[in-house]
Amino acid sequence: MMQVSITTLNRRRNGSIGRKEDVKACEVLRIGRGAENEIFLSDFRVPLHLAELHEGADGLFIEANGTNDLRLNGSIIRKAHVNAGDVVGIGPYELIVTEPEDGINIAVTIELVHPIGDDVESLLSRSTLTTNNIGLTKRASSWILASLTLILFLALPLFMADTPLTKYFGDPVSDKTANSMTNQNDVDFDVSWVSGEVMNSHKFFANDCAACHTKAFVMVEDAACTACHTKQHGHIDKVKFPAEELTSTRCATCHTDHQGPHPIRAAKQELCSDCHNDLDRKVEGMHLANVSDFETNHPQFKPTIWQNPSKGIQKRISLDENPVEVSNLKFPHKTHMNVNRMRNPTTGKNTQLECASCHVPEISGAYIEPVKMEEHCGDCHLLTFDSIAPKRMVSHGKPEEIYQELTEFYSSLALKGGASDKTAPKVVRRRPGTPFVNGEEKKEALQWADLKTKKAARYLFSASQCGSCHEVIKDQKNASGYSVEPVKVTQIWQPKSVFDHGKHKDVACAECHAADTSMKSSDVLLPKIEGCQTCHGGEQATDKIPSTCISCHGFHRDDVAIMTGSTGKTVQ
Amino acid sequence: MHDGFLTYQNMKFLKMAAVLCVVAVVAYVWYQPIDEHNGGTWLGYTLGTIGALLIFWLTWLGIRKRRYGANFRLSAWVSAHVYLGLSLIVIATLHTGFQFGWNVHTLAYVLMMLVIISGGFGIYAYTRYPTLMSENRRGSSLDDLLAQIGDIDRECRQIAAPLPDSVAELVVQSCEQTKIGGSLMRILSGKDNNCGSTAAFARLRTHVSEVEQEYAQATRKLLVLIGKKCGLLTTVRRDIQLKAFMDIWLRVHVPMTVALLVALLIHIFSVFYYW
User: Fold this and answer.
1) B172 CB near a chain A CB, below 8 Å?
2) How many Cα atoms occupy the beta-carbon half-sphere of A283 within 13 Å?
3) Is the pLDDT of residue A186 over 80?
4) How high is the ipTM of this complex?
5) How far is CA B213 from the centre of its chain?
6) DSSP count for chain B of H helices, then E strands
7) Among A85-89, A458-462, A568-572, which stretch is predicted with the lowest mean pLDDT?
8) Does any CB of chain A come closer than 8 Å to the CB of residue B80?
9) A107: contact with B, CB 8 A cutoff
10) pLDDT tens column, B196-211
């Protein structure tokens, strides 16, 4: 049994050193973290049984257990002799062997020289283990983002832009000039409030929000639209038909903006069919037919047809009733499309006429120009009247004008002389320019002229000439002795709808117009609705072209008062 | 918490959110506006109102669920917050009618989407990362790991004391030029390309065969210790990386939510101001 003195040094924070001496009796001095060890080192970094210190024949001897190792004066060892003054490193501890006092076999001093945390603290001082202190806090960035949003998107638009609010506090000076329909169109702070692209036709004032949004928190009023759209007509007489659907409808109900560059007009057929599908029940004595869908519920076309051009009478007649047009014009389409019948009297050649030979689209392509006699008929229907002047023609005009032309032609010839007509009196055939011998000669010449004029007129106004196309009647009240019934050929058959020939140019004319079998100009060569319905369906059609009411019909009617008119009275 | 909030009450809130979305989509397809789908039709106003109320309510939930001690089930609030929040993607997108532009209205939408996306990451982080963190640390605490690293440093220093300078300077490099984390990006990367310990380990490994015989054993010991330290550092860096990911999304989620609330109120104000 040996006596061991164990002195534990405890370095305090203030620099002083605590000393605790313990004397134990044991066979072997055990070192480790376990409580049974004589040198009990509580630091967890020390193994339970680290080493043992013996007293042998040749002095003190230290030996590490297992795979542990020790540091003797800085060198790594497993076992070694130790003498007084040696320093043994045991984990974070230092064990110093000292000279034992009397009665003591071994004396050691033990000190924790590397308390836990030293190296850790130095590591931590260089490290950042959380993101909490990096950059802005959540609160700070919240404030910044919220403030920025508030300033950029509320304060600036509300207080700095030319909005109804600023107008409310003080009307800004208008820079509206006589040449401009609008105020300024500069980009303003309220550009961030724009909900979508303005239609192209409004872009010249698109940045002036207050141009339309005249009152804060009030939907755009019609007055804002009619301020510019002064000539837009209404749909019906609001006084006569104060239908709730129409009186409560705003311009913007159908014409919304901020939906992209192309103008929006509501095309849904229910907007029309809501009223028009049972108009007969809504309005007593209603002359308009019910309609709700082009394919399933639309009346037969009722073109406006001339019934009596002389008295100016037109009538809408359904195509189902096989209407007959009275135009006072005789024209067989079939004959004109027969190449054998079409011989040009000048060239003697036969020509195959086509529709476009006479029917030329007007410049927009939508409608067809009226047929003109001089341009389209005159090449063959020559208005010649006398073989002595085979190329001389009268104008295509009124009978009295034609008669006047004839009178002037023959009188001039009679007065000048030199006529080639063998049947003419001598005086008319005299050498041209020779003066009359006396008044009798002059009278004779003019009598001849009058005779020839009447003859030519008889020829021209006969059934084979003017009468081949026109209704010519004998009329003694007219200087010529004839009058021609006025010709009225319908230009717009269906004035309440729009038909664009240009959009249908790839369809052969004969698909819709049965001209090649028509022998009478009274035939109405319009296609029935069934013809259109082979391609066009109603709004919901999936196997045809979906066509809504406004594909053909307009809402605004020129015969109704303009939208601004509060009375809604019809202008006519 | 873990994934308890996802399956809370047999996914009651998921079902509610799904029904809401389906109804919204069906209404959108069924309803044919006079002109175009947009926020100004009656369906647009309806969806907008639902969306705005959801946003206000969800924000309030976000605050509410952080107040402990009140009489409510945490997983219920989180579950509602998550599923109804996700349903906003459908509700708000249909409200826009797919019309977007450089304006405060789309700003509100974008902020909302950022809030939802960051929240989505939060869901992932809260369901996945706690497990990954446990697996990574293998039962130790972060403090344990740091203490072990400190211990290795100390031990290395002690071992290196009598060794040649060429070895000792590597130990100093390992001990004094190693740091954990640093900048936000470095924490989130989970790596440190300038790690003193990794560099020291690499140099020591080539140097170990060159030292004199008497120092060879100590040098090999150092190599083992620094190698172990590098392993511990990897674990610690991964740990704070995962922890950072669990925190970082809130730094987007919360400020974006605040900005969204402001933008949303401005959106509502401005569309009616310019009605």
Assistant:
1) no
2) 15
3) no
4) 0.85
5) 51
6) 9, 0
7) A568-572
8) no
9) no
10) 899 989 998 888 888 8
Say how many C-beta atoms besides its own lie within 10 A of residue A426's C-beta. 10
Are A195 and B154 inside 8 Å of each other by CB?
no
Using an 8 Å CB-CB cutoff, list chain A residues near B190: none
Q: A238 — phi, psi (to 5°)?
A: -65, -20
How does pLDDT run across A329-368, given as a tens digit for each residue? Answer: 999 999 999 999 899 888 889 989 999 999 999 998 888 9
Tell me how far apart the alpha carbons of residues B105 and B100 are, in angstroms, rounded to a whole number. Answer: 8
* Burial letters B175-184, b for 16+ CB under 10 A, else e: beebbbbeee
Q: How far is B255 from chain A (nearest CA, A)?
A: 4
**Interface contact flag, B34 A128, Cβ < 8 Å:** no
DSSP 3-state assignment of A368?
Answer: strand
Quick one: average pLDDT of A431-446?
86
The shortest C-alpha distance from A268 to chain B (Å) reads 6
| pLDDT value for A179 | 47
pLDDT digits 0-9 by tens, B80-103: 888 889 999 999 999 998 888 899
Residue B31 corresponds to which amino acid? Y
For residue B148, what pLDDT is reported?
87
Nearby residues of A388 by Cβ (< 8 Å), 6 or more positions away: A419, A420, A421
Can you give the pLDDT at residue A184? 67
pLDDT at A143: 94
Look up residue B117 and give its amino acid. I
Sketch out chain A's domains with CATH numbers: 2-116 (2.60.200.20), 164-267 (no CATH), 304-371+489-527 (no CATH), 399-484 (no CATH)
Minimum-distance CB partner of A264 among B35, B101, B146: B35
Residue A67 in contact with partner chain B when CB distance is under 8 A = no
Does any CB of chain B come closer than 8 Å to the CB of residue A133? no
Give me the pLDDT at residue B70, please: 57
Cα–Cα dist B231/A564, whole Å? 85
Comparing CB atoms, the residue among B158, B180, B271 nearest residue A129 is B180
Position A221 scores a pLDDT of 86
How far is residue B15's CA from residue B19's CA, in Å, rounded to a whole number? 6
CA distance B201 to B212: 18
Q: Please give the pLDDT value at position B112.
A: 94
From B119, B96, B113, select the one nearest B24 (Cα to Cα). B96
Shortest distance, CA B143 to any CA of chain A (angstroms): 9
B237 near B245, Cβ under 8 Å?
no
Among residues B163, B158, B155, B165, the alpha carbon closest in space to that of B226 is found at B155
Nearest Cα to Cα of residue A162 among A222, A216, A229, A226: A216
Q: What is the pLDDT of residues A48-75, one digit of tens each?
A: 788 888 887 788 888 888 777 788 887 8
Contact A193 B256 (CB under 8 A): no
B40, B247, B266 member nearest A131 (Cβ): B247
> Tokens at residue A218, please?
């009030």
> Which chain A residue shows the shortest CA-CA distance from B36?
A259
pTM: 0.70
Q: Residue B266: which H helix or E strand, with range? A: helix B213-273
Instruction: Name the residue in chain B with its Cα closest to that of A123.
Output: B179
B263 neighbourhood in chain A, CB within 8 Å: 149, 153
Residue A440: exposure state from Cβ atoms within 10 A (0-12, 13-18, ≥19) = exposed
Phi first, then psi, for residue A119 (nearest 5°) are -70, -35
Interface contact flag, B38 A196, Cβ < 8 Å: yes
Most confident stretch, A118-127, A160-169, A415-424, B256-265: B256-265
What is residue A164's predicted lDDT score, i.e. its pLDDT? 62
**Residues of B numbered 92-131 whose beta carbons fall under 8 angstroms of chain A's beta carbons: which are they?**
99, 101-105, 107
Residue of A nearest to B174 (CA): A123
Query: Among all residues of chain A, which has the CA nearest to that of B256?
Result: A142
B40 has a chain A CB within 8 A of its CB: yes
